[in-house]
Structures are given as structure tokens and as C-alpha cells.
Amino acid sequence: MPEDKPQGKTIEEFFAEIDLDNDGSVNADEYFSGVKMWRKDITDDDKPSQTLLFHLADLNDDGEIDIRQFARLIAILNRGFGKDIKSVFTAVFRLLDIKDQGKIGAPELERLLKKMGLQIESDDIEGFMDQVDQDLDGFITLKEFLAHFVKEPKDGQ
């Protein structure tokens, strides 16, 4: 499991170190450089998934995250984040679940799809919700989210 931040540094010190222009926020490139300093297992191949996580952490969609958003993102990554697909989708779900209720609805799903660069009509989002929401309670839980997006390999594969 990764450490909370580079050893011997507070979150504030780590943030200040990667905030290269000292403007109180970091952009996606500054964030990615910082993640690579912190996690030696992160490589340039991980940039697309890390960039998506960054954009989901950017709650006001200004292309930058402040110390509060950064701390939340690091806390989510520290809850068992690895490079496997299940870890990435778990982090995505937790970033979408802003109220930390263990579920997301259509607005959060629409936000994810927009962050991924997809434009989907509201009818399509509702249809997708119906597909993923296995218990039909109007929300998607982490278990339902992972069941849809992370297909477990079948025996022998």
C-alpha cells in the first residue's frame, strides 16, 4: 500500500512542492509529476487514468485543484489504490461520491461521462442507470459500479 505522502512531508508541504508556479493550485501536469514523485510505480503509461482522477477531483471544473481537493484525492488514493483496473474504478467511484454516501446517481454518472469526453443524452443516461442499478433503487453502489465496469476473468483465462 502506498504511503500517505512522500515520507517526512505534510500534505501541505507536498502540495507546495508540486505547485510549481506557487499560485495555490495545481494543474493536471503538476499533479501527475507529483504523483510520479510520490509513487515510484506510476509511469507515463498511467497518465490517462491519473488525469481522469485529477479531473474528477476538480469539483469546480477550472482545470486546477486546490489544497482541499488535492487532500481529498490523496486520501481516496490511500484507501488501497493500485494500478489494476478495479483500483482505478474504485477511485473513480469514490471521487464521484462527493457526499461519501456509498452511492451515485444519474448526475454523477453524467459528470463522469463528460469528464471522459462523452456527450450522452439524458434518456441514454437513464437507460444506462437502469442497466447498472441492479437493485433498481435509483442509485449505483460501488459493488454495482464495479460489476458493470470491471469484468472478472473467467476461469482458465
TrEMBL record:
Keyword Protease: no
GO molecular function, one term: 2-alkenal reductase [NAD(P)H] activity
Keywords, comma-separated and alphabetical: Calcium, Metal-binding, Oxidoreductase, Repeat
InterPro entries cross-referenced by the UniProt entry: EF-hand-dom_pair, EF_Hand_1_Ca_BS, EF_hand_dom
Domain EF-hand: 6-41, 84-119, 120-155
EC number(s) per entry: 1.3.1.74
Record's protein name: Calcium-binding protein, putative
UniProt organism field: Entamoeba dispar (strain ATCC PRA-260 / SAW760)
